[in-house]
Specification:
Helices cover 85% and strands 0% of the residues. The protein contains 14 helices and no strands. The chain has helices spanning 3-24, 29-43, 45-54, 59-86, 89-112, 118-136, 140-145, 149-152, 154-176, 182-204, 207-241, 244-250, 253-264, 272-290. The protein starts with a helix and ends with a helix.
Length: 292
């Protein structure tokens, strides 16, 4: 995996974990995430215009991918918001993020015809094992005895759904950025999502709730919006120069960043399973990075 792609993914992971943390703390996650699409439609417009001039889009082929990513991200933002509404960040985030590295390489090989080297396959496996060890090891007995425990909780169901949607849009967007510059691609996605979700937000939550969320969280809304563009723009750029089968698992280094922040800033405990799991993820990323 190219060194530049690894660097882009590492920076993106830090940004991604940060905006998910801020989203979880919102009073109304659905309104909050929708407002990020509205603010981004304004703030990212100059950058989108510049990059559309520098790297003109091939809309004759790219329009179908733009439409598809808009629809997938409508589902993603609603599903993610509901996962955080009904579940803790420490439960929903790894469930959603842990699904993608297992599925994307499989779909990448079967659908896109990518080839995964032996060392990369080992690395991907180590990332998945590391995620499992950090978050689910202590509950492994209950999961084995009651395999449907995860889907009994509403938040867990939405988190799993989010993971499946992430898998779909990751594969879809890998092809889309071949025709449209990542920044322009993300911008059009935000505009489309914002427009589609507007009637739903007004009907479901009402104008007064929207105004209240904006008054309470406008600085965080703008911050999260910019972080989403920054983090996903970097991932799309990485997918332009590397295989999606490698990029998707490598993104999960953000989980290690979250563990470190929890220990250093929140003074959370650091049991052995987190050390083992974090080490497994790091070694897995190293293996993926060294793969041809």
């Amino acid at each position: 995996m190219p060194g530049l792609a690894i660097a882009l993914v590492l920076i993106s992971s830090i940004s991604h974990g940060s905006w998910n943390f801020l989203l979880k703390r919102a009073r109304n996650q659905e309104i909050f995430i929708w407002l990020t699409t509205v603010t981004n439609s304004i703030f990212i417009l100059p950058a989108a215009i510049i990059f559309s001039i520098i790297d003109p889009a091939d809309l004759s082929s790219g329009w179908i991918f733009l439409l598809g990513t808009i629809l997938l991200h409508v589902l993603y933002f609603i599903s993610l918001a509901r996962a955080y509404k009904h579940s803790d960040l420490s439960a929903a985030y790894p469930t959603a993020r842990g699904t993608s590295p297992m599925l994307v390489p499989i779909v990448g090989v079967l659908v896109l015809g990518e080839s995964v080297s032996f060392i990369a396959a080992i690395g991907i496996g180590m990332v998945v094992i590391g995620i499992y060890t950090i978050y689910w090891w202590q509950n492994s007995g209950d999961i084995i005895k009651h395999p449907f425990t995860l889907v009994k909780n509403v938040g867990s169901r939405y988190a799993l759904l989010t993971g499946l949607i992430i898998t779909c849009y990751t594969i879809w967007d890998k092809q889309g950025v071949a025709y449209v510059h990542p920044i322009v691609y993300v911008y059009i996605m935000f505009v489309g999502v914002g427009i589609i979700l507007t009637p739903y937000m007004l009907r479901t939550h009402g104008a007064s709730a929207i105004k209240a969320e904006w008054a309470l969280s406008k600085k965080r809304i703008v911050t999260v919006g910019l972080l989403i563009v920054f983090s996903y723009g970097l991932v799309l750029s990485a997918m332009r120069i590397s295989q999606v089968s490698y990029v998707a698992p490598a993104r999960e280094i953000g989980i290690v960043v979250g563990v470190i922040l929890g220990i250093v800033i929140l003074k959370e405990p650091f049991p052995l399973r987190r050390l083992i799991g974090s080490s497994s993820i790091v070694l897995g990323i190293i293996a993926i990075a060294s793969a041809p």
